[in-house]
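Morning F.,

Quick status update on the modeling queue. The single chain you submitted on Monday has been processed. Sequence for confirmation:
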Amino acid sequence: MKYEWKKQEKTLYGAKKTPTLITVPKQSYIMISGSGNPNDPDFSSRVTALYSLAYAIKMDYKAAAAISGCEVHDFSVYPLEGVWNLKHGGKLIKEDLEYTIMIRQPDFVTEKMAAAALERVKTGKPNPLYAEIRFDTMEDGKCIEILHIGPYDDEPASFEKMAQFAKNNGLERRESRHREIYLNNAGRVEKSKLKTILRYSVR
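Structure tokens below.
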């Protein structure tokens, strides 16, 4: 069986175009942090490093599963995610952004497996940013989410819908940071067709 997040985790990745409430459990990720404008080359370099490791983990798991006869013999690589915050709050200035970008790992992938894949990929595809990648968990808990369709710069309109939903339901945002889950590749689709899950924790 191939584990495919699009089919088997529709609750977590099937956001609607109107705000909804969701509870997000603890999840494992490979992640790397940075700061500054996401249009700058440094951000792209961090994304590339993450994906190199993500596919190395996938290939290592697939090879090991073939030998051991695991029921789950392969899995689809999860989409890129980012947790975003402003250094000083206030008006959005991209150069002031702080972020942690990440790729989720299936529950059957362990930190030890990720570390082994990292050592292998360091040799095959050298990149100084590998030293900054870590394996960790995050638990967002109760969240408001929405599926934003269109350019990233148009996200404020979707955040306004989320804020109104929170107000109507007696909820308040727990912190200034928010999560974005990128369901398609910005380099391969028109900006008007980009699909991004926007999500933040509430109480």
